[in-house]
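S2.1 Query sequence (7-cyano-7-deazaguanine synthase)
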Amino acid sequence: MRNVNNKKAVCVMSGGMDSTLSAYMKKNDGYEIIGVHFNYDQRTQKKELECFHKICKDLDVSQKYVLDLDFFKLLGASALTDKSIEVPTNGVEEGVPVTYVPFRNGIFLSMAAAIAEKEGASAISIGVVEEDSSGYPDCRFNYIKSMEQSINLGTKDETNISIDMPLVKLKKSQIVEEAIKLNVPLELTWSCYKNEEKACGVCDSCRLRLNGFEIAGASDPIPYE
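Output structure tokens follow.
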């Protein structure tokens, strides 16, 4: 019989800095990490997958799920999945940016919940950041909490899953500081929306990352153009 009291955490891991730090925080809290990564035809899919595997090796993750989703490519509607839409690089975009992938985190969390129930995990970890993010509606604290409630309503009575978002109220500079404090291998992470060899340094994600390192007084270990 499945034991939901095991300290297992399903960690949604993109290969980026935020989700990586979240996974290391769960590891430090004594959880056995189950790594979950999604290939959804994003521009930097190959690089993100490579980072995921390297991070899982460093974390000593024994159970990994790599899930291939063609839905988002068919859907389009985002600069991350539709190459006819340019990734903005001027840093002045207002409102929900064109890099927003419609309901991506909702879909990811639903799939993570199925894995958590199957594996007897008591937690799902996701590295959403509300305050200092790019304005994605599916990164909001209230949304994630409502998703937690829905997941527990839609699973077996004995299933009790918490969705942990330890970074949701942090600024990017605080994330950098916490990652350095926990010796997270930031050189294995990737944030760029555009490139896979050297980060562009000018997309929204690169700008947020570089600004976080600058405010934290640290050097970013990944290569930039």
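The domain at 8-216 is CATH 3.40.50.620 (Rossmann fold). Strands lie at 8-12, 32-39, 63-68, 123-125, 162-164.
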